Automatic annotation (TrEMBL), chain A:
Cytochrome c assembly protein domain segment(s): 89-296
Family: Belongs to the CcmF/CycK/Ccl1/NrfE/CcsA family.
Transmembrane stretches, start-end: 6-29, 41-62, 96-114, 121-142, 178-198, 210-230, 250-266, 275-294, 314-332, 353-375, 390-410, 422-443, 449-470, 491-513, 619-639
GO molecular function: lyase activity
Protein name: Heme lyase CcmF/NrfE family subunit
Record Pfam families: CcmF_C, Cytochrom_C_asm
Compartments reported by the entry: Cell inner membrane
Xref: PANTHER family: CYTOCHROME C ASSEMBLY PROTEIN-RELATED (PTHR43653), CYTOCHROME C-TYPE BIOGENESIS PROTEIN CCMF (PTHR43653:SF1)
Organism: Microbulbifer variabilis
TrEMBL record, chain B:
Record's function text: Heme chaperone required for the biogenesis of c-type cytochromes. Transiently binds heme delivered by CcmC and transfers the heme to apo-cytochromes in a process facilitated by CcmF and CcmH.
Source taxonomy: Bacteria, Pseudomonadati, Pseudomonadota, Gammaproteobacteria, Cellvibrionales
Positions with a binding annotation for heme: 124, 128
Family: Belongs to the CcmE/CycJ family.
UniProt keyword Manganese, yes or no: no
Stretches assigned to the Extracellular side: 30-149
Superkingdom per UniProt: Bacteria
Gene3D superfamilies the record matches: Nucleic acid-binding proteins (2.40.50.140)
This protein's encoding gene: ccmE
KW Membrane (keyword) present: yes
Topological domains annotated Cytoplasmic: 1-8
Entry protein name: Cytochrome c-type biogenesis protein CcmE
């Protein structure tokens, strides 16, 4: 009964989103306030029904209701309860339901927090979100229904959640990633509403900005968490592979980053308007493209979902409709919203334009590398894969230029700056970064010029941000008083930039100074990696709630002093018969010691020699710390009082108008 | 022509020129950094260049996995149902690597006719077969069938 209730709730949700997509927007054109007013309760209603469906599926998982096909495929009765709850998004159908829930959640959030928006704008934004919701409702109901039954012959036992997903990282990764992916649909809806309305002003940008920043911050966290999970869970110790599925999330992030910066120009200076709109359309389109790539089975990836061509064609069709209609609308209406204004070559506008061009270039490059194998296959040019050398060839130099521009741009003014002032502002951070870059590699066992260049780039961004904060506080009575005078969004920006610097430093140091060795080791063997002694004490048996494991015992010491005891596992899950590596990591701020078990080299004798991977990963945590700082920076920027003040001011002017009337 | 229109036309032409240059450059870079995929029968037919980074894929022939006594070196044979290809590897094999299952290998073909792998990819979940492997199998039906020859 409960699965049918969930299915029914989905259908009701679809009907409500149909009404949401038609009624308010029609009302906005025929000036019927009542129809426009309907947008908010309808959006909340859609969310309520998706929530009911979501709860129904969760209940089916908790009750181990194997008459539901999706539950039977992604759970079993001995799965721990917390993984039963997260197994809801462990497979395709359920993750689309989560997607839908978050999509409806964003629409409900706009309905709740958007009360002070101009009524036509709110009605149109919610209608556009309603149209997007229809697409996902149809997708789930027609191609990916999680409530399909296995009746009349249900299996006695489910076939288990993929063991790779039985991990805390996987509990948080999909919801955060989807919050970001789906969040860009709000920016998209704002862009379409602006095109429909035919005007785009600072108030519009001030509204669209926080929504975009929040979505971007979530996406940043989601990507970072996915990369961290790949690092510790897959046992390879890598954090980015240029895998098509990873690229699918990187592309919207790059465009979202460009969009955030372009929105800043639109809000402060009223420029880049049509460009901002185009970026908002692209960011959401790339989220959809990512979904298509991951779920259609067209790409080879270690992460690809088991797939179904019908689903792929549906998303491709949906993508075509969304991109087609929005670009058509853009072509027809963009001239109406565009503005002309003047800015000097030395202005902040120029640097932000450079930032946008570089980010879009990087995205275009990633897109080319990701799609080229598909195109080549379709044209019968052979089966090709584009590997990391291609991506690094572009990514590294373009990122270097981007970071150089960033450090220069943070010191520039709007409209115009003076060369002498700019040059003197750049001098000190430049020298500081140079010293850091030349000295830091001395701390490692070999001097590496690539590291010098990379460290310079990271340190340059860091020092330029600090220098800007110092100079902004110089004229105040005291340093603290000066700090207090700046806005939250100012600190958010600098924190995010410093986060980027930290991530760059982590990437460079890890790439250059990490050591990885795959070895054959027996009990009692010892090996030295990067100055650390690894003593292998053999393997023993260990027992988990739903798996059995061989557990390696590895003592790590440096110069005779014990550093860590690590217990990597090779797990065998009772249900699926899958083997899983559980790496053991001693994390530190400056290095990780990372060990993973391969396999017993003589299958008949597990207490004999094992394949063991020993790794020293320099500064690897900085990559994720940097991403965390970026996301926190986004959060702080959104907390800026300006966004609420604008609301208050609007309310005041509205009530003033009413009083006057 | 109206001066504003003329200005726009020039802008468009410049953009077109720049983007074609970019596309050309990308294509060139891609040519240098692409890995072609070959099925084992292409190796047998001599279509695969030596000592160039390529990818291969097929089903791991049951019973073919052999380990060295004193190192990590491992040898196995993959097949597409028609021809067989020997692969050598000296690192840790992925968890889902198994006899009778699909695997995709990047590496170089040695003059001896053996593929030296620098990366072995197995899949993420047990129901997934990489599309290249599925297509290159003579039976087009995944591994357990094809590997039985």
């Amino acid at each position: 009964m409960i699965p049918e209730l969930g299915h029914f709730a989905l259908i009701v949700g679809l009907l409500l989103s149909l009404a949401l997509s038609i009624l308010p927007i029609a009302g906005s054109y025929s000036a019927r306030p009542l129809w426009m007013e309907a947008a908010r309760p309808l959006a909340l209603g859609v969310f309520a029904f998706v929530f009911i469906a979501y709860v129904c599926l969760t209940v089916a998982f908790i009750q181990s209701d194997f008459t539901v096909n999706y539950v039977a495929q992604n759970s079993n009765s001995i799965l721990p309860i917390y993984y039963k709850i997260t197994a809801v998004w462990g497979g395709h159908e359920g993750s689309i339901l989560l997607w839908l829930l978050i999509q409806a959640g964003w629409a409900a959030a706009v309905a709740l927090f958007g009360r002070q928006l101009p009524p036509e704008l709110l009605a149109r934004v919610l209608s556009v979100l309603g149209m997007v919701l229809i697409g996902f409702f149809l997708f789930i109901i027609l191609t990916s229904n999680p409530f399909d039954r296995t009746l009349p012959f249900p299996p006695m036992e489910g076939s288990d959640l993929n063991p790779l997903l039985q991990d805390p990282g996987m509990i948080f990764h999909p919801p955060l990633l989807y919050m970001g992916y789906v969040g860009f649909s709000v920016a998209f809806a704002f862009a379409i509403a602006a095109l429909l309305g035919g005007h785009l002003d600072a108030v519009w940008a001030r509204w669209a900005r926080p929504w975009t920043v929040v979505a971007w911050a979530f996406l940043t966290l989601g990507i970072a968490l996915g990369s961290w999970w790949a690092y510790y869970e897959l046992g390879w110790g890598g954090w980015w592979f240029w895998d098509p599925v990873e690229n699918a999330s990187l592309m919207p992030w790059l465009v979202g980053t460009a969009l955030m910066h372009s929105l800043a120009v639109t809000e402060k200076r009223g420029l880049f308007k049509s460009w901002t709109i185009l970026l908002a359309i692209f960011a959401f389109s790339l989220s959809l493209l990512g979904t298509f790539l991951v779920r259609s089975g067209v790409i080879t990836s270690v992460h690809a979902f088991a797939t179904d061509p019908l689903r792929g064609s549906f998303i491709l069709g949906f993508l075509a409709v969304v991109v087609g209609i929005s670009l058509l609308l853009f072509a027809l209406r963009a001239p109406a919203v565009s503005a002309r204004s003047v800015f000097s070559f030395r202005s902040l506008e120029t640097f932000l334009l450079g930032n946008n061009i570089l980010l879009i270039l990087i995205m275009a490059m990633v897109l080319t590398g990701t799609l080229y194998p598909l195109v080549a296959d379709a044209l019968n040019l052979g089966k090709i894969s584009v590997g990391p050398p291609f991506f690094n060839l572009f990514f590294v130099p373009l990122m270097v230029v981007l970071c150089l521009l960033l450090g220069m741009g943070v010191r520039a003014n709007w409209k115009d700056s003076r060369w002498d002032k700019l040059l003197s502002a750049w001098r000190l951070p430049f020298l500081a970064a140079l010293v850091v870059a030349l000295v830091w590699p001395l701390a490692f066992d070999h001097y590496h010029w690539g590291a010098v260049l990379g460290l310079f780039i990271g340190a340059w961004v860091f020092c330029a941000s600090l220098a800007d904060i110092v100079s902004k506080t110089r004229n105040a009575k005291s340093f603290v008083a000066g700090l207090k005078r700046q806005r939250a969004s100012y600190y958010g920006m600098h924190l995010a930039h410093i986060g980027l610097a930290v991530a760059v430093l982590g990437v460079v140091l890890t790439t250059v100074y990490s050591v990885e060795e795959d070895l054959r080791m027996g009990a009692g063997d010892s090996h030295k990696v990067a100055g650390y002694d690894f003593d292998f004490g053999g393997v023993r048996l260990a027992q988990g709630p739903n798996y059995r494991a061989f557990e390696g015992v590895i003592h790590v010491s440096k110069n005779g002093k014990p550093v860590a005891e690590l217990y990597p596992q090779k797990r065998n899950y009772f249900s699926g018969g899958n083997t899983m590596t559980e790496a053991a990591i001693d994390t530190g701020l400056f290095r990780d010691i990372y060990v993973a078990l391969g396999e017993p080299l003589d299958r008949s004798n597990p207490s004999g020699d094992w394949a063991v991977r020993l790794q020293y990963k320099a500064f690897v945590v900085w990559i994720w710390l940097g991403a965390l700082l970026m996301a926190i920076g986004g959060g702080i920027a959104v907390a800026d009082k300006r966004y609420r003040k604008a609301r208050a001011a609007r309310e005041a002017s509205l009530s003033g108008n009413l009083a006057a009337a | 022509m109206h001066p504003v229109r003329k200005q726009r036309l020039i802008l468009v032409l410049v953009l077109v020129a720049l983007s074609s240059a970019a596309v050309g450059f990308v294509t060139y870079a891609m040519r240098e950094n692409m890995d072609y995929f070959y099925a084992p029968s292409a190796f047998a037919a001599g279509e695969v260049p030596f000592e160039k980074r390529i990818r291969a894929g097929g089903c791991v022939v049951p019973g073919s996995v052999q380990r060295a006594e004193d190192s990590l070196d491992v040898q196995f044979v993959i097949t597409d149902g028609e021809a067989e290809l020997a692969v050598v590897f000296d690192k840790i094999l992925p968890d889902l690597f198994a006899e009778g299952e699909a695997a995709v290998i990047s590496g170089q073909l040695m003059p001896s006719g053996v593929l030296r792998a620098d990366q072995v990819l197995a899949k993420h979940d047990e129901n997934y077969t990489p599309p290249e492997v599925a297509e290159s199998m003579v039976s087009h039906e995944g591994c357990t069938d094809g590997a039985k020859i």
